[in-house]
Amino acid sequence: MKAIAAARLRELLHYDPATGVFTRLVRTSNRIKVGDAAGSPNSRGYILISVDGVLYPAHRLAFLWMTGEWPPHQVDHVNGVRSDNRWANLRPATNAENTQNRRLAHSSNKLGLLGVVRDRKRFRAQIMVDGQRINLSTFDTPEQARAAYLAAKRRLHPWN
To answer: What DSSP string describes 103-153?
Structure first.
């Protein structure tokens, strides 16, 4: 992705840190008027904004607009709402920090419970820490395994 400069971004868009909304400062086509809200959600819920013919995630543009620099890694939505681009809801994060915010199990998880997998006739609770999978224990019910996962998450995932 071609990186836009902060000065160019500020020429084209205004960002309201309190609402997280970008508005157009320049008419760039017949469809776009000055003052229009910029961007639209993609299939994953992130707001994408076209700037000079390139689509950018709004949360990354917000970071650039506020700091004058691109984020070093990722930008995390503190509350987990991907379309909430208020400055108070954004923070720079490494991939490991950002994955601590997962609230839903991966689509391949047949139980649908984050941190719980079937282990023969029992249920195993597991958590990732620093790229390493830690097996917490096995349990008779998925609810017991889920409770063990959540307790470990509170202890081992300080980012969340």
So the answer is: -S--TT-TT--TTEEEETTEEEEEEEETTEEEEEEEESSHHHHHHHHHHHH
State the pLDDT at residue 46. 97
* Contact by Cβ (8 Å): 22, 13: yes
Separation CA 83–CA 57 (nearest Å) = 10
* Residues 48 and 39 sit within 8 Å (Cβ to Cβ): yes
pLDDT of residue 94: 81
Assign residue 140 a region: left if phi > 0, alpha if psi is -120 to 50, beta otherwise? alpha
Quickly state the pLDDT bin for 70 (edges 50, 70, 90): very high
pTM: 0.73
CA distance 113 to 83: 24
8: three-class secondary structure by DSSP: helix
